[in-house]
Structures
1.
Amino acid sequence: MNVEFYERIWMWAAVGLLVIFVGTIVLTAANDAVRPPSHIETVDPAALADSPEYGNPAVAVRPDGSIVVSVVTQMYSFSPDPIVVPANRPVTFRITSSDVMHGFEVVGTNANAMAIPGYVSQFTVTFKRPGEYIVGCNEYCGILHHNMVGKLIVREESR
Ligand SMILES: [Cu+2]
C-alpha cells in the first residue's frame, strides 16, 4: 500500500500526540497520585436519613483497623464536622450529597472528590501530617456556597 509522504508525517504526528497524552495520564497517576474514580455505588438521596450508613454519618473503625468516614454534604455544611481521624493510617472517605452537587476537598492534600446526589464517591488517603485541615466545597452549590467550610482534624496516633 502506498501512503503519501505528507500523509505519513501526519499519521505519525497523530500517534505521537496519543503517546504524549497517554504518557501524561500515566505520569500524573504515578507521580501525583491522581486517579480516576474507581467506584460506582448508588444510594437514594431522599432516604439518607433512613440509611444505616448515612442516617448518622460518622467516623468508623473497621475490624482490620482501617478507618471509614461516611460524609453527607448538604447546603451548606458537611456531616460530620469536624471529622477526626488518626495520622498515618489509611482513611477511606465515602461521600454523598442529600441535595445538590457539592465538592469535598481537604485543602493542602490530594483528597478531593465530587459529592453527587445518588452516588457514593469513595477514595482512600493517608494523612501523614497531624493538624487541622480545612474542608472546602469546590462546586458552586447555591447562594451561601462560600460559607460551606468544614474541618478535618488529624490526630497524632498514641501508641
Ligand atoms: Cu458548595
2.
Amino acid sequence: MELRRELLAAEMLEPSTGEPVRATIEVRVDPLTGHSSRILPDRGLMPASDFDLEAFALQSQPGCPFCPGRVDRLTPKLPARIHPDGRITRGEAVLFANLHAYSSHSSVSVYSPKLHYLPVGAITQRLLADNLGTQVAFAQAVMAAEPQSRWASINANHMLPSGSSLFHPHLQGIVDSAPTTMQRMLAGVPPQRFDAYLDAERRSGERYLGDTGRIQWIASFAPIAPAELRAFIAGISSPAELDDGLIGELAHGLVLALGAYGEMGFSSFNCAIYGAPPATEGYPLNLRLACRSSLKPFYRSDSTFLERLHWEGAVDIAPETLAQRIGERFRA
Ligand SMILES: [Zn+2]
C-alpha cells in the first residue's frame, strides 16, 4: 500500500526585508477513510499549559453530580430491562444513564466517584480497565435486550476543551441501531485495506509504536486531531466482544499513551473506540486517541474551520515526531 502524501509550497514576502520566504505544508490522505490532513511546520499550536488544574478541580467540586454522596441521587438509572440494578459497577467505576442522551442508549461512567480530580498522567491501568469494563458490560446488556442495537462505541471527552460539560473525568458509551458517520465509513473499509495499512506501517516503522500482544498501536499517518494515535484489535469487531484479557491489554496501551500525553504537557483528550456490529467479518475493532488544547482561560481551540467544516485535519505535531516520543514506552 502506498501512503499518499504531497508537498505544497507557500511563498510570501518577509514583512521587514521584503525577501521571499517559503513554507512547506504536507497534505496526506488517510488510507482508511480517504480524509486528507495537513501536516504544518511546528507553530506551537498546542502549547503545554501551566494551568492549575487541581485548584480548578476544587472550585468545580461543590455540587458535582458525579462525586460521592450525590452520584446515587443525581444520576439517572438504566431501565430495568437493560440492567436490573440500574447502574453497572466494576472496581471503583460506576456507569449510569446519560442525562443528556445522544442515542437510544447513552451512558456515562466515572473512573471513580472519589476521583473528581484525575489528570491524564494519573489514570492507572486498574482505573481504566474497570471503567472500560463497565462500558463493555453496558454494550453487552443493551445488545442482549435489544438485538437491533448493534453499533457500540466507547468514547471519552476528558476535560472541558474536549467537549466535556462536567469536570469529573468519565467515559461515555453509545449503543444504537445506526452507526455514526465515522463508524459507517470505517465499517465500509475492505478488510484487506486494514491489513495492508498495518503491514505498511510495520514495515516502515516510522509511525509504528508496537503491539501489546493482540493490539497494535500506531501514530496516525493523516491525523484529524493533534498527537493522534490509533489502535487495532484483530479478531473482534465490537466493544461488546472485549474479554477481560483484552480490556486489561487495551487499558495498558491507553495508559502508556496517556502517560506520554501528560509528560508532553497535555491535559485534555478525546478517545473513540469505533465498534461495528459484533462478528463483522474482517473488521478490526479500532480506536482513535488525540489531544485537545489544554484547559486555561481564553485558550485557543484546536478545532478550526478546517476540522469542523472541511473535515480536514491540520496539525503541527508531525506523526513521526510523535511516534519517536511515544514509541519507546510501547517498546520498553
Ligand atoms: Zn465530581
